[in-house]
Amino acid sequence: MSDQDHRSFAPPLRMLMGPGPSDVHPRVLAAMARPTIGHLDPEFVSLMDEVKRLLQYAMRTDNDLTFPISAPGSAGMEACLVNLIEPGDEVVVCRNGVFGGRMHSIVERAGGRPVAVDDAWGDPVDVDKVEAALKAHGDAKILAFVHAETSTGALSDAARLAELARAHDCLTVVDAVTSLGGVPLEVDAWGLDAVYSGSQKCLSCAPGLSPVSFSQRAVDRIRARATPVQSWFLDLSLVMGYWGGGAKRAYHHTAPVNAIYGLHEALLMIHEEGLERSWARHRLHHEALVAGLEGLGLRLRGDAAHRLPQLNVVELPAGLDDGAARRQLLDDYGLEVGGGLGDLAGKVWRIGLMGTACSRRNVLGCLAALDDVLRGAAPAAGKGLGVAAALAAYG
Question: Is 27 annotated as belonging to a binding site?
Answer without folding.
Answer: no
